[in-house]
Design brief:
343 residues; alpha+beta; Trna Endonuclease, Chain: A, domain 1; 2 domains; five-stranded mixed β-sheet; elongated
Amino acid sequence: MSFPTSSLIWVVRAGRRGVFAEDFIAEGFVGIGFEEAGWLDENASDDDIEGAVARGYSTKKKGSRRVSAGQIKRFFREVQAGDPVCTYEPNQRLFVLGTIRSEIERRDGHKLFRSRRVDWTHKVARDQLSAGARNSLGAILTLFRLNEMVSGELARLATPLDEELPAPAPPAGQAAEAEDESSEAILREEVVEKSETFIEDRIARLDWAELQTLVAGLLRAMGYRTRIAAPGPDRGVDVFASPDGLGLQEPRIFVEVKHRPTTTMGSQEIRSFLGGRQPGDRCLYVSTGGFTKDARYEAERSAIPLMLITLPELRNLLVEHYESLDSEARALVPLSRLYWPVD
């Protein structure tokens, strides 16, 4: 018996890493938490929901609170009795499918207490799905709706819960393998690109003094001792670095830090920075707004070695030397390691 669906399938995650999947399936429901917001009537207004989330999660960032409030609104208003739904059971690597059978109900005593009853009827093994479908189902939102292609694939492959799953398919042909490899490569590129962008966003949100501290921390991670100029006018270079920290040993590194993401540094700024530099000096100019073509030409023709550092290049340096950063610099842009399978 095929899975009956005439609409797109909802996905409701059973908590982080599917820890409540057994509860969902055994007790016949799906639910969402956000318990710090307290109980809300399904007729609550947008202002009611947003206010409850803001009060309950006051320490979270505004964007995170907005996502949480949006998830509650969708579960209250867009999900309807009769809609198809699925959740992931990680221990058996199964997507379990069913149909929502109730309006919002309060499930006292459960962490995911905003609930709707579900008749679970079908299952699909994760390994049966195409790479594209697996990628779509890997979204991290608590609640989301699948597109037509993935909904159709799940419905087509669905097996009734009381029946054995089909035997594992034989190794895919070359065309299918190539498609899977291509999908995984695209996903990897997307993940890498997003992570790079998010790191740059974090750097861009630093204030000028924090960015200066981060640059000094990177130089220390590379083995130099640093001095940061005191606040105020006529402060000279922003960061000075050398092997001994005194400038008696070469290289003596002079650093200018310009944290103006919407302003591109030109040749005049480069000439002004280089004025007064001596043979043996080395210079870095960090600009989160980048450099003009003329500025790059000015740097190339300079008799004093000068490296121009843009925001993407600063991000690369941060990732490359992160493990060697001291705690002060790490705290400015906290990062965690992500492991990815390789061939």
